[in-house]
Amino acid sequence: MESTILIRNARAIVTCDGQDRVYYDSDMLIQGPKIVKIGKNLTDPHDQEIDATDKFVYPGLINTHHHFFQTFVRNLKTIDYPNMTVPQWLDKIYRIFQVIDDQVIYYSSLTAMADLLKHGCTCAFDHQYCFTKATGKAPVDRQMEAASQLGIRYHAGRGVNTLPREEGSTIPANMLETTDEYLKDCERIIKLYHDPKPYSMSQIVMAPCQPINSYPDTFIETVSFAREKGVRMHTHLGEGENEIMVERWGKRTLDWCGEIGFLGPDVWIAHGWELTPKEYEVLAKEGTGVSHCPGPAILGGFPILPIGQMQKMGVCVSLGCDGSATNDSSSLLDSMRTAWMMQAWHSKQRGGCISPYEMLKIATVNGAKTLGRNDLGSLEPEKGADLFMVDAGVLELTGTLHDPRNLLARTGVTGNVWLTMVNGQVVFQDGHLTRVDEGKLAREGEAVCTKVLREPCEAFHDLG
């Protein structure tokens, strides 16, 4: 018999369900990995009780684009992203990435995942394209190890770069792989980690890094192999590469992807800030989603996505932190606040700002849809018990409590949450990760960062 947990007397349960229901002064019964019942004064037998007095309960946030390995290149004065073009930044940052080893992958992933969990994220996709001579083929394995330790749901994007610098990419030689190497490793990790069943804790996504840094056959073979294996696909698209693609192939990136079949309901892209309204129509028709990453958009000075317009046209927009080389935070709460503020500014220019609650649904319901998880994204019976709680009984939130749906993004609730639950297990509560010795891991990770990156890399010498 699976164990049961009763969340008792929550001040509000914001469900994000199809009716946008909010339950006040109510309980939630959880059995094993799933929600069983929500209502007032539940009397069902249970093994454990969580007192949620004065707590607002929300569905777990779902991150649809990140690069965990980059958390060890944060806060660098020498990588001044706001004053670089994307190609300039890529050229400089890859010189650091090429020395990363599997220990950096492991500890940087723990760092990013911990940050996500502490800020209410329960399911995360990571675009792992850093495969160096030092890492070998171990990065996804080390990330799965980290995710299992912390208790976060993890969708691993197996990335790749195959085009050499001398043929027009920004990739150092010791970060290149062949398409055959990549496909062989995809087959291995799909067998090991891809679990398509409800309440799955791990899945694999085939995710070539970006069209300008790989041979066409890398993408063509990805389409064939992913659909054979029943896994999703992802890449960077519409973030400044179109000029290169037109020069190289005579067509914009979305057209190029469409011709080879790299579009569809099993595909989503990151960024998309240089796409046109006509291209939004293509995305909507194909069912291809967009992971909006507000941090790098602001830092890079890029156009703001017209999310309201895109959603009206039928494009599924979800939310991503992106990597810490262009967003030094792995807090999806912070990204949600930033994204909504961007839309508020945008609406003054174009009209039609989305509400803070709609932004919450982008980070929950749309995130689940993007990852193909119809078992996640909202709080209702039979959905996975992924949630977080905010303490509403604090002085700084006084005067806001009448509207828990709009609270988070509108009032800037971006600090640590009170509790995070994944798959029916409490993984963070009242300031503490429940499954690991956080201090020990932090000390070990800092030592690895110094040994592998700070000391050998010139770019780390002037930290300012």
Describe what this molecule looks like in 3D:
- This protein has 464 residues and is α/β, with parallel strands linked by helices.
- It has 2 domains: 4-59 and 379-433, Urease, subunit C, domain 1; 61-370, TIM Barrel, CATH 3.20.20.140.
- It contains 15 helices and 17 strands.
- Strands 1, 2, 3, 4, 5, 14, 15, 16 and 17 form a 9-stranded mixed β-sheet that branches.
- Helix 2 (102-118) packs parallel to helix 3.
- It is globular and about 65 Å long.
- The termini are far apart.
CATH class of the largest domain: Alpha Beta
Structural class: alpha/beta
The fold-level CATH name of the largest domain is TIM Barrel
- What is the domain total for the residues? 2
Rounded average pLDDT:
94
- Share of residues in strands: 15-25%
Can I get a quick summary?
It contains 15 helices and 17 strands. By secondary structure, it is of the alpha/beta class. Helix 2 packs parallel to helix 3 and helix 2 (102-118) crosses helix 15.
